[in-house]
Write a structure and sequence with these properties.
The protein has 246 residues and is mostly beta strands. It has a domain of 110 residues. The protein has two helices and nine strands; from the N terminus they run H-H-E-E-E-E-E-E-E-E-E. The strands form two sheets. Strands 3, 4, 6, 7 and 8 form a five-stranded antiparallel sheet that branches. Strands 2-1-9-5 form a four-stranded antiparallel sheet, with no helix packed on it. Strand 3 and strand 4 form a beta hairpin. The chain is rod-shaped. The relative contact order is 0.10.
């Protein structure tokens, strides 16, 4: 050892280091992984992040059942195109979560409504105009004037779809109608004895079927009501109510 130290110089040391580098090398031999040799056990926890996953690389088969909850989905992240047909039922909807804005026109029929499931508060405005009641009606006084309300403080409307200009008192006991915004298919008239308190008056109605309604002018040819006093056997001015259906 003493001899080595006495003959060791800087140049000798550098030459020796170079020899070691040449013999040992500084590179690592490449490691070749066989296909499918790396699985979940070989990957440490949280080692794979979003940047390591290619776009659309995760599908339903990569997600375990119930692994994705509402908190993992961005607001408005699920649209109708992402839902399978009939995949959303009553159990997926919270109470009062579906309103009129979520329903397509005419999408709810009798098959979607159970017995006694609808009350008056569930019916908006005139939503039953076509299902319940006539398309137009009028309560008419003996002089041809439309009856407006009931009592000194008024009351429910006594006419719908009929304006005063639509009514013509042509002569005693003859009342004509025109100007309604639909073609009348059927009509019904009854005498109104609320004021006279008599029961010997009747009312009949005829609707336009291509023949001129006698006694009515050209602007009131849609329907004609005649009121008749049975006791006098003659036409007479009598209050009445008339219903019109399209």
């Amino acid at each position: 050892m003493q001899w080595i130290r006495s003959h060791m110089s800087f140049a000798n040391a550098v030459s020796l280091i170079a020899l070691f580098v040449a013999l040992g090398g500084t590179s690592l031999a490449a490691v070749t992984l066989t296909k499918n040799s790396v699985g979940a056990k070989q990957i440490k926890k949280d080692a794979v992040r979003a940047s390591e996953i290619k776009r659309n690389g995760v599908g339903p088969s990569e997600i375990r059942s119930n692994a994705v909850a509402s908190g993992d989905i961005a607001d408005n992240g699920v649209s109708a195109a992402d839902l399978a047909e009939n995949s959303v039922g009553a159990s997926e909807l919270s109470d009062n979560s579906v309103g009129g804005g979520e329903l397509a026109d005419n999408s709810v029929g009798t098959g979607e409504v159970t017995n006694d499931s609808l009350t008056a508060t569930d019916i908006v405005g005139s939503s039953l105009d076509r299902e319940v009641g006539p398309d137009a009606f009028a309560r008419v006084q003996g002089n041809g004037t439309l009856e407006g309300g009931v009592g000194a403080t008024g009351g429910p409307a006594q006419f719908k779809g009929v304006d005063q200009a639509d009514v013509q008192r042509a002569s005693a006991g003859i009342y004509c109608f025109g100007g309604l915004d639909f073609v009348i298919a059927s009509a019904l008239a009854i005498a109104d004895n609320a004021g006279a308190a008599v029961d010997d008056q009747i009312a009949t109605v005829a609707i336009q079927r291509g023949l001129n309604l006698g006694g009515c002018d050209a602007d009131h040819q849609q329907a004609r009501v005649q009121t008749f006093d049975v006791s006098d056997a003659a036409l007479a001015d009598t209050p009445f109510t008339v219903w019109f259906e399209r």
